[in-house]
Amino acid sequence: MKRPDPVAVGTIVWLGSEVMFFAGLFAIYFTLRSTSPELWESRTELLNVPFALVNTIILVLSSVTCQMGVFAAERMQPYTVKGNGWKSWGMVPWFWVTFALGAIFVSGQVWEYAQLVSEGMPYGADSYSSAFYLTTGFHAMHVTGGLVAFLFTIGRAYAVKKFTHKEATTAIVVSYYWHFVDVVWIALFAVIYFLK
């Protein structure tokens, strides 16, 4: 009987604690919506839903490219090989694309913050703005942590002489985290931008 990888199991357990952390942030939003509906309505009008939707699509696409990198890692293919189609790409190029998409997403959030501040919604303006920046800011920090993890995974692929199951497991574990961050953002996006 094959035992599960302890690193993968540990990551899943840790992500369970992260679910509880984000559940607390969601609770802030739902409490605010029920106790201050007028504030909620006035502040949500400032949000740029089309821009946030495009930014969300970018993050979701990064999950697709991340999984393509995992498929390559499972084939023990860190680099691009001769051939045609998506199977010729290795883990490293797929993870570079994922890194770029994630960086675009975080940059988009920073741009959105600048727009909201210029429209009169700075961080400490009221309870809604505090909840918005706290929730989306913590998510952006998680995305940034994922970007660092991609750099380490890519660096590790370059550093080893032979790409082994250990390096493939690292790629898989990083993908667990990245997919988690994406799913959390989809839920945040629905609550923040569509719940009127």
TrEMBL record:
It is an enzyme of class 7 (translocase). It is a multi-pass membrane protein. Pfam families: COX3 (PF00510). It catalyses: 4 Fe(II)-[cytochrome c] + O2 + 8 H(+)(in) = 4 Fe(III)-[cytochrome c] + 2 H2O + 4 H(+)(out). The chain crosses the membrane at residues 12-32, 52-73, 94-111, 131-155, 176-195. GO terms for cellular component: plasma membrane. Residues 1-196 form the Heme-copper oxidase subunit III family profile domain. GO terms for molecular function: cytochrome-c oxidase activity. The keyword Protein transport does not apply. The keyword Hydrolase does not apply. PANTHER family: CYTOCHROME BO(3) UBIQUINOL OXIDASE SUBUNIT 3, CYTOCHROME C OXIDASE SUBUNIT III. Belongs to the cytochrome c oxidase subunit 3 family. This is cytochrome-c oxidase. It comes from Microbacterium barkeri.
